[in-house]
Structures are given as C-alpha cells and as structure tokens.
Specification:
The chain is of the alpha+beta class and about 475 residues long. It has 14 helices and 23 strands. The chain has 2 domains: about 300 residues, Electron Transport, Fmn-binding Protein, Chain A (Pnp Oxidase, Chain A, Roll), CATH 2.30.110; about 160 residues, UbiD C-terminal domain-like (3-Layer(aba) Sandwich). Strands 6, 7, 8, 9, 10, 11, 12, 15, 16 and 17 form a 10-stranded antiparallel beta sheet that branches. The chain has a 5-stranded mixed beta sheet with strand order 19-20-21-23-22, with helices on both faces. Strands 1-5-13-14 form a 4-stranded mixed beta sheet, with no helix packed on it. Strand 2, helix 2 and strand 3 form a beta-alpha-beta unit. Helix 4 crosses helix 9.
Length: about 475
C-alpha cells in the first residue's frame, strides 16, 4: 500500500447529500431502536419508489446518533453508489453494468489503497475499559432475533496469516455485551479462511469492523471478489481513484479514513459463543443455532454524530435484495453470452428468490432448442448454480423483471409435460430452507427449467397478444403524461 494525503472521495455524508438532492432520502425522527426502526424499514422497502431512510432522535441516544437503511434499494441510488449515470429502470441499470465487473477486476491491481495519518474516523476514540459498543443505537431488527445487530450493512477488515492479503467482507455482527460482539462468517468465505489460519496457529485473529461508510463499501464487500484480491482495490477501480485508509492503532489494519464507526479488536483462540438467530436472505431463520467467533473490542473509533449503515436480511424484498438482484442479473447476462446463447434481451434475478432461486431470461428465438439451451445455462452457470430453484425463459416481448408478465407467459405459453425440465442432484446448500425436508445429509437439490416461450415450431400459428403495441403504449404515455 502507498502513502498519500489526498482526499478520500468515499464519504457517506457526501453521498447522502447527493441522494437528498434527487429526492430519495427521507428523515425519520423518534423511531425506537427496539423493533420500530426495523419494521419501518421493512415496510418501506416493500413499496414502490421507496426512499432511503435516515433515522435520528432515537430514544435513549443523543440526537445525531443516526441509522441509515434502504440505501441500495432503488435504481437511482444503486447507480449513484456504483458511480454510473443515474438510472431509474432495472433493465437500464443491468445494461449499464454489462462488462463492468470484468473491467473492474482487470483494473483493480492498479488501485492499491493509500494511507493517510488523519481522518474523520479519529474524531472520537474509546480505548480499553472505556469501550462501550452499546453507545450506538444498534437495532433489534426483528421480533425473533437473538440480539441487537450493530453490523448488517458493514464491512469487516481482516488479514491473511501468511501473506499481505487484506480481505474486506460483509459478515453480520451481533452484540453480546458492551465489549464483545459475535462475528458470523460462513465457512469457505475469504474472512473465514483467514480466521481458520490464525486459529490453527493458536494466535489472536485481528479484526476491524466498519459499521458505517459510503454504501459502496458494503456493496462490494458483499459480492464475490476473486480470491486474494483486496476489496479496496476493486472499489478503487470503480472510483478510478485509490481508497484512502488509516491504520488501526491496535491491529494496524487499514480502515476507511472517512468511516463513521469502526470496532477494532481480536478473536482469541477458542472464543466462540451462540450467535443468532437472525434471518437469512431468503426470508427464513436458520434451522438451528450455531456458534460464531467472539471479537473482544478494545478500540472504538467514531465520527461526531455517527451513522450506522443498516441492511438487515428478511423476507424479500428486503433492504439489500434489490442490489443483489441487479448485480447478479448483470453477471448472469454475461454468463449467458459467454455460454454461447445468442440474442439475449434481458435477465432478472428476482428478489422473491433472494436473487438466486427464481431467475428469468428473455430471448429472441433463433432456432429450435434455443430456449432450452438458454434455460439450462442460466440454471447451471457458475453465477446461477448456487441455491438455484427455477430458471424461466421467455420471449422478447416479456419483461423478465415483471413477475406478472413472466407468470402470464408461464400460464399461457407452456405445456407442463413438454416445457418443464427437472435436473436432479444439482448444487444445493444447507442454507436452503427446504434442506430440512431432504432425505440426504449432502446438500443436493433439484432444479426446474421452464421454457415459457412460444413453441418454436408453431411461431407463425401461435395466437397474437391482445394488447396495444409497445410503440403505441410509449406514444400514449408521452402524450398523456398527466395520466401516467
């Protein structure tokens, strides 16, 4: 990493000002951290044209100690986070993203983070005995949660035991008491691999938990960045400018200089405790409670009037399901093209399936078997295989993001005997809510591929759709704007 005193473009408050300017930020005063804040956010994200919510005057906490939710749940906000042109349609955003992830991965090595001596994150510091994680209005998000979760829209900074690799991952963080938090890292994820190495060496595992920052941090720390690559580099490629960091005074880990709140400490060998329950992205609680590493917090850094970035999972649509749908849709689009599927018109990984379990592609049919080819590749490509369930192929006149149109095509353009293929013993997961019913301890699951296109051998004979043409619809919308 390089040294620099250049300003960091990643300031949450700058982004909030931008969002307020284009009318997608709403202030909420007086909501209680216990259930109210979570329920308000949950109801908000389920309505159309939902704004980001900035909670203040939270009972029991100083004015200005705030919580932000719903930051990534609209096309305009998500495109601004990704530093793209402001886009207000799902498909437009997916199209803007085409090729971008590959470009960002290629350019990431050029953008090592840069160190600075100072940053807003050091405006306030709690050390050792003065540490109190409960100083902040961490929500109890849902009625059946096992505790208050300070870390949902967070970024957890860790390092490798035997290399210089720094990882920044999104792992949920539950408060145990004023100086201890639970850190839930799924086995196989990069942070957990690093954790295991320290435990095998019987040495403390250094951790810095970034609780609030520009949402680009947790958006990127929550996607699949190549093994060994630091997420700061990936973010730098998006910004076309290095991320500015400071050293944690306890662990030396690189911390975003303009972060809102950072918890720094160690996981000591053998320190584990029951964590949860907490909901998963598919909308269910896990089947049984498990243990997770416990972080002993010895430093807390925070800005004046700090902001927690909250992004709790729940029954979709949830706080972050839209961002996952967009990112995964763009990756699926690229995977279909790479798999040799021509004339792909649109792809959508629906929020109702956690952006994994219900995916749709629209194509312009060019040859017999084209639809089945698209469906099987959509189902089994690397991006689509994990926790998949239903893969649906529709004609180009169907908007793959419009569930009503998709299911209309399923209802009127399929014969169940001819148009549904079942793949058995496909990639599964113990995180699948249906796993409880499987008769195997191994995580297999089946897949349904539904060809909801007009039958290719009867394209000319298939009945016409009884609706105004797309061109006429656009003319009417333009002429009669006051009605639409």
């Amino acid at each position: 990493m390089k040294d620099s005193a250049e300003a960091n473009p990643l300031d949450l408050r700058v982004w909030l000002d931008q969002v307020r300017e284009f009318g997608e930020l709403k202030d909420v005063y007086g909501a209680d951290w216990k259930l109210e804040l979570g329920a308000i956010s949950e109801l908000n994200v389920k309505r159309e044209n939902n704004p980001a919510l900035l909670f203040d005057q939270i009972p029991g906490y100083p004015d200005g100690f705030r919580v932000l939710t719903c930051s990534t749940s609209s096309p305009a906000r998500l495109s601004s986070i990704l530093r793209l042109d402001i886009e207000k349609t799902h498909d437009g955003l997916v199209q803007q993203l085409r090729g971008k992830p590959k470009q960002w991965v290629a350019e990431a090595p050029k953008f090592d983070p840069v160190y600075t001596e100072k940053g807003p994150i050091f405006e306030n510091i709690q050390r050792d005995e003065s540490v109190n994680v409960l100083s902040f209005p961490s929500p109890l998000w849902h009625e059946k949660d096992g505790g208050r979760y300070i870390g949902t829209g967070c970024s957890v900074v860790t390092k490798d035991y035997d290399s210089d690799w720094v990882n920044v991952g999104t792992y949920r963080v539950m408060i145990h008491d004023d100086k201890h938090v639970g850190l839930d890292m799924v086995p196989g994820k990069h942070g957990h691999i690093q954790y295991q190495k320290f435990m095998q060496a019987n040495e403390p595992f250094p951790v810095a938990i970034c609780i609030g920052a520009d949402p680009l941090h947790y958006l990127i720390s929550g996607i699949e960045v190549p093994f060994g690559m630091c997420e700061y580099n990936y973010i730098g490629a998006i910004l076309n400018k290095p991320v500015q960091v400071v050293k944690g005074e306890l662990t030396g880990l690189p911390i975003p200089a303009s972060a809102e709140i950072v918890l720094e400490g160690w996981v000591y060998p053998g320190a584990e405790k029951i964590e949860g329950p907490f909901g998963e992205f598919h909308g269910y609680y896990p089947g049984k409670l498990t243990t997770a590493p416990v972080v002993k917090i010895d430093r807390v850094y925070y800005r004046n009037q700090p902001i927690i970035v909250g992004s709790p999972p729940a029954k979709p649509p949830n706080d972050y399901s839209y961002s996952k749908a967009v990112m995964r849709s763009a990756l699926l689009f690229e995977a279909l093209i790479a798999g040799g599927v021509p004339d792909v018109k649109g792809v959508w990984a629906h929020e109702i399936g956690g952006a994994r379990m219900f995916t749709v592609v629209s194509i312009k049919q060019r040859y017999a078997g084209h639809a089945k080819q698209a469906g099987h590749i959509l189902s089994q490509c690397g991006v689509g295989a994990y926790l998949g369930r239903y893969s649906i192929v529709v004609d180009e006149d169907i908007d793959p993001a419009n569930l009503q149109e998709v299911m209309w095509a399923v209802a009127t353009r399929t014969d169940p005997d001819l148009d549904i293929d079942i793949i058995k013993r496909s990639v599964g997961s113990k995180n699948d809510p249906m796993f409880v019913t499987y008769q195997s301890k191994t995580a297999f699951s089946s897949r349904a591929i539904i060809d909801a296109c007009r039958p290719f051998d009867y394209l000319n004979e298939f009945p016409e759709v009884a609706e105004a043409s797309k061109e006429l619809q656009e003319q009417i919308k333009s002429k009669w704007k006051e009605l639409f």
